[in-house]
Amino acid sequence: MSFKLVGLAGSYNRPSRTFALVDHIARIAADRYGFEPRVHDLADVGPSLGQAQRQGDLDEAAAGVLADVVDADFLIVGSPTYKGSYPGLFKHFIDLIDPEQLRAKPILITATGGGDRHALMVEHQLRPLFGFFMAHTLPTAVYASDRDFSDYRIVSEALLQRIGFAVDELAAFFPARELAAAE
């Protein structure tokens, strides 16, 4: 049985530190647990998002990304920090998801920002957002600032260690997968 890992970076920018963070975590989790990873950003969702009032209003590309998100066995969600919170179009994409579609889904929440003063964005913005959906946000959230990257690659040992702690927590949801991947 193949489990599906989906990463969603709430950024339109390419390249993006948020995408780099989500993609890095997705690769580690995929290697460790044998997931089939897919990582999207809002550029993949495209322009129909801004006019959509419900899922059926999305064009084919956006509907495909949304289907990947709701059909995933595990999500890694990342957001850039914009004025102390997540960007509006990221929130609009999440608003199109029915709460039942994320119920009990394990989610690793991540965010990026210019400096440490936004580090609690994951706890004060993203955790309550996915709590509304009754999803299982992993206890360890990951926040990365500009200084943790060089040329869109993670260079901070402390950040890499925190990512490792977060990926370890997946074993609570996929213990047999971890044992199989270790063999």
UniProtKB/TrEMBL annotation:
Gene3D superfamilies membership: 3.40.50.360
E.C. number(s) listed in UniProt: 1.5.1.-
GO molecular function: oxidoreductase activity
Source superkingdom: Bacteria
UniProtKB keywords: Flavoprotein, FMN, Oxidoreductase
Family: Belongs to the SsuE family.
Chain ranges of the NADPH-dependent FMN reductase-like domain: 4-146
Keyword Hydrolase: no
Native organism: Rhizobium puerariae
NCBIfam families, A to Z: FMN_reduc_MsuE
SUPFAM superfamilies, sorted: Flavoproteins
InterPro entries, per the entry: Flavoprotein-like_sf (IPR029039), FMN_Rdtase-like_dom (IPR005025), FMN_Rdtase_MsuE-like (IPR019912), NAD(P)H-dep_FMN_reductase (IPR051814)
Protein name: FMN reductase
The organism's taxonomic lineage, starting at the top: Bacteria, Pseudomonadati, Pseudomonadota, Alphaproteobacteria, Hyphomicrobiales
